[in-house]
Amino acid sequence: MAPQPSGRSSTEQPSERTLGSTQEMDQSSERDSDIAAPEKTHFAPVLGSLGHSRGRSHSCSSHLSRQKTSESRKESLDPDLDINLPYRTLSNNADMNEYRTETTAGEIPGPPIPMGDGETHYQLTTFKPNDPENPKNWSKAFKWYCTMVVAVTCFVVTFASSNVSADMIGVMEEFNVNEQLALATMSFFVIGLGLGPMAFAPLSEIYGRRLIYASTLLLAVIFIIPCAVAQNIQTLLVCRFIAGIMFSAPMTLVGGTLADMWRLEERGVPMSAFSAAPFMGPAFGPLIGGFLSDAKGWRWLYWIQLIVAGVMWILITFTVPETYTPTILARRARKLRKETGESYVTEHDLDMRPLSERLGLFLVRPFQLLFTEVIVFLFSLYMSILYGVLYMFFVAFPIVYQKGKGYSSSKTGLMFIPLAIGVLASGLSAPLVNKHYVSVARKHPGRPPAEFRLYPMMASCWLMPVGLFIFAWTSYPHLSWAGPALGGFPVGFGFIFMYNATNNYLVDCYQHQAASALAAKVCLRASFGAGVIHFTVQMYARLGYQWASSLVAFISLACCAIPFAFFKYGARIREWSKYAYAGDDEDDVVDSGPSDMEKNSAKGAEPAGGVLGAH
């Protein structure tokens, strides 16, 4: 019986991790050097099944951290970079090529296993060419079906966050509570949406996407029921908070699911569908909720959530297969070990980080980036303001139309239509923006600077203050309903351009740290959105309709300086950043800093995947 996978041999040499040509190893070395500084890498020895300690060799790390030359820094944008791979779960020695490669034999040589009379090798399991289990080889029709299922699930999540805004008065009257406590049914849900990803992102890297989708959506559906039948405000608030946490999983995993299925050159339109869905939900929530609450009362706002979320749970659980490559290959390796008795493994079996490292990377690193990296902090703050405007509208529209003009909930809901049209138009335009970036990147002699991602943001950032000023100064009760409603169109149209540009910029800046940077953004964004829900009422009461909206418009106008400032100075900021990638082409129009290896050597920075809490 072959020994079970439990660690790497201390005799492991970098040549034994070679996949194909020397050129491929060189490319892999450059990628890994961006996330590892060899002089700080420490690996605990692992007790193998043969009863002896097998520590990982530092020679492999030294090889992988090959110093970049000015010539090697002029390479094109690495198409193999995939932030959905388990960089935070696996050690820096893990061979990610296992998850990116198709081989005829379905395996590549792994590290050696010392034996009494020599040594043998583990076999790292891979996909085969045209492998039907590889999600990228599924038929286009089935991939589109899975895409729409997960995108609509995102729509349902954000719909559930906003549709309750249609009838806060009903909750206030039934439970005899004030408006702030009734609004907490929204803010508690939003806080849950921000906290959940801190747990579900790492769990999905270990257990796969399908299990997390199925279990969290089921719990979300279950906790909607007490909301619909609640007899006191405490039950409603607690269950909304738990439902928000559970509903956060689809929002966390959908982008990765699409990347699992679609090749890089195919992702434009599917990613546009995903980008629009989370913003369409908030627009349609008050629209549908308004008619439903007028006809059936506030409890039916939760029953409709139960119905649509239940349908999506059935579809995603029973019709969408596992898409996460490491999980699929791990199952295949277990099956092959059982059938053949040979040592088939995956990097999950060999190179899992210690629990303390994983907890640090998932729970601490996002906040390190948020509070020590000016790029992460300012762009997270900008997206928080954007998110806050969206949730401000859920409170401001009823104030302007119901209190100011005497409209019903259903009629007020109709005022969100221009916002929805703006979001939809933005989503449909997203592939054109992506095509523009690709054309610009191809013309660039080397790796395109991360700042090229900011072009859409610089063009669209003006739309939000314009829309807010229109909303502000047409909101007088004696003026037409059309003014404030039409102000929602430019705001909605700018959402996706700014949202996607921010995500792309953070990914290009932080490479293998990008997942932590995005997690920091989500956490701050949710906290800000929850707070906005509560202070909007007081702000409109004290400042009046016009100046309350204008205040937010002026803040968003000031934020327009952020993308322009980083377009000009972003490369210099990345040069001095401890975590940001600064490997752009030296001759670019935007100044480029030294390579990551040079930065690590000069500053003594720890490897990107190192133990946290050392700073």
Label this structure with key terms.
Growth Hormone, Chain: A; about 625 residues; three-stranded mixed β-sheet; globular; membrane; two-stranded antiparallel sheet; about 5% strand; mainly alpha
Fold and architecture overview:
Among the domains are: 190 residues, Growth Hormone, Chain: A; 225 residues, Up-down Bundle (Growth Hormone, Chain: A). β1 and β2 form a beta hairpin. The N terminus and C terminus are likely disordered. The chain is mostly helical. Helices cover 65% and strands 4% of the residues. The chain is built from 23 helices and five strands. The longest helix is centred in the last third of the chain and has 46 residues. The strands form two sheets. It has a three-stranded mixed β-sheet with strand order 3-4-5. It is a multi-pass membrane protein. This is Major facilitator superfamily (MFS) profile domain-containing protein. One of its GO terms (molecular function) is transmembrane transporter activity. Keywords: Glycoprotein, Membrane, Transmembrane, Transmembrane helix. It holds the Pfam family MFS_1.
Q: Nutshell version of this structure?
A:
The protein is mainly alpha-helical.
